[in-house]
Amino acid sequence: MGLWASEACIALILITIHVVFVLLKYTRRKLDGTSLPLPPGPVGLPLIGNFLYFIGPLRRNPHRGLACLAEAYGPIVSFRPGTAKNFVLVSSPEAAREALVANDAGLTARPVADNARALAHSAGSVFVLPGSDPLWKKHRITIGARFSGRSLNVTRPMRDRNARQIAEHFRACSSREVSVGEALMSTALNSVSNVLFSKDVVDAHALGEAHVFKELVVKLTADTAKPNISDAFPFLAPLDLLGSRRSFSRTLDKFYKLLNAEFVEPRLATGEKHDDVLDDILAQYAKSQLTHSDITKFLTDMFVAGSDTSALTVQWAMAQLLRHPDKMQKVHTELAANLGSKEFVEESDLVQLPYIKAVVKETLRLHPVTPLIPREVVSDDMCLGGFHIPIGTSVFLNVWAIGRDPASWPQPEEFMPERFLGDRAVDYRGSDFSFKPFGAGRRVCPGLDISARFVPHLLASILHKIDWRLPNGMAPEDVDLSDNHRTNLDLATPLRAIPMFIA
Ligand code: HEM
């Protein structure tokens, strides 16, 4: 009886706190002068809000769980995972357009995960610095000058060489079962490092092997957005209860040291010039416009943002093609018809390979590697879809759900690259918000242009003159297409297959 009474007492206190909290919020909005309602969403518990969702249905694949919330509450949903700020979820093309076009200026920040604060990384990170920060602007100009448009023609020969290396690697593995993703990750790292430092980071003979640089980037990528109780309950952050930030700090520290020892210090010592990103940032360093720490943080972000994303997209495309032999046949027919006996695919061949490019787009529609694009409301409250979105709210665009919206995509679950050919040739940029795997607006992915070249190039290179088989008597329908949302959208079962070189 005594125990029951104390439980009832605790429940009463929690309910009272919750009611006070709701009343305070209501009163504040009245004082703010807004009469717009907040977006609808699941009712949270006192104090912990909707936290239980995040250790339950949303733990493994939040993009799927959040798509179900949108089905229940509509295209703009709000919820509160813990005592941290409100989250708003955007899940329709129209709402995404309103967020990224009409409200772009107000959404130029990103939520900062507790891990990102390790070694003060967030203070120099191009990924999380607010859009108003002069350092963010400086970094975006540096990236834009080397990673977009015609400037990419300068580095094209290096990507041709990287694509040729991976083709040779898989041809040399002919008839042997391989992990498809391992070599793809090495090649994606090399394609980024060549624009940054004019150098491969993984040796051509070791593409399929473990490598310290690769291991560190893989670990940093996996841990960047690892679920962490400190993010739901910021008052616990100083304790770092899961040790997440400490572990991230150790990995970051190793990576910073590696970047400095192998790339930054030697270039500073010799004063060599290579007409690349490192030249550009060292020139800014010489004028005291950047610190040494700004440089390592920037380079770290470029590897974390640019390599796993590209490698995973090619791995997803391969998984879909192995699952759909008729589409694989179309790819081989296109390659044979346009390249004939040419030994290796070059970037300039892509104009003749529309089907391969459509395969990549269809892959990014179904498996966008950043399924939930994170933004944050800065400077002022905003109105979205007739709802009030207070300053400080974290806004997530569920591009995974938008890419499967049946109103925009007939038979949305089917892998049909043909939908990206002909009249309905939706592109990555442009006004169609039913397909935005690289985001949009001021914070659009600055790697879009290089990815639009290199991802189809990489895919074509590992398919040209190579016939892929499934191992252990697997049938196409046995290819596992289930996903696992770590920082990026990973395959739940890493793809293994057997390359057969067609001489
Ligand atoms: C298939 C490949 C890729 C995909 C699907 C992808 C997707 C994305 C998405 C969705 C965003 C957020 C955009 C937004 O908020 O609107 C982003 C940001 C970013 N991406 Fe990519 N990305 C890819 C490759 C790359 C590459 C190759 C690089 C550079 C080497 C890169 C560098 C970045 C950076 C630095 C940001 C942060 C930009 C900022 O916050 O200002 N990405 N990417």
UniProtKB/TrEMBL annotation:
<keyword id="KW-0408">Iron</keyword>
<dbReference type="InterPro" id="IPR017972">
    <property type="entry name" value="Cyt_P450_CS"/>
</dbReference>
<keyword id="KW-0349">Heme</keyword>
<keyword id="KW-0812">Transmembrane</keyword>
<keyword id="KW-0503">Monooxygenase</keyword>
<feature type="binding site" description="axial binding residue">
    <location>
        <position position="445"/>
    </location>
    <ligand>
        <name>heme</name>
    </ligand>
</feature>
<keyword id="KW-0472">Membrane</keyword>
<protein>
    <submittedName>
        <fullName>Uncharacterized protein</fullName>
    </submittedName>
</protein>
<keyword id="KW-0479">Metal-binding</keyword>
<dbReference type="InterPro" id="IPR001128">
    <property type="entry name" value="Cyt_P450"/>
</dbReference>
<dbReference type="GO" id="GO:0004497">
    <property type="term" value="F:monooxygenase activity"/>
</dbReference>
<feature type="transmembrane region" description="Helical">
    <location>
        <begin position="38"/>
        <end position="56"/>
    </location>
</feature>
<dbReference type="GO" id="GO:0020037">
    <property type="term" value="F:heme binding"/>
</dbReference>
<keyword id="KW-1133">Transmembrane helix</keyword>
<keyword id="KW-0560">Oxidoreductase</keyword>
<feature type="transmembrane region" description="Helical">
    <location>
        <begin position="7"/>
        <end position="26"/>
    </location>
</feature>
<dbReference type="Pfam" id="PF00067">
    <property type="entry name" value="p450"/>
</dbReference>
<dbReference type="InterPro" id="IPR036396">
    <property type="entry name" value="Cyt_P450_sf"/>
</dbReference>
<dbReference type="InterPro" id="IPR002401">
    <property type="entry name" value="Cyt_P450_E_grp-I"/>
</dbReference>
<dbReference type="GO" id="GO:0016705">
    <property type="term" value="F:oxidoreductase activity, acting on paired donors, with incorporation or reduction of molecular oxygen"/>
</dbReference>
<comment type="similarity">
    <text>Belongs to the cytochrome P450 family.</text>
</comment>
<dbReference type="GO" id="GO:0005506">
    <property type="term" value="F:iron ion binding"/>
</dbReference>
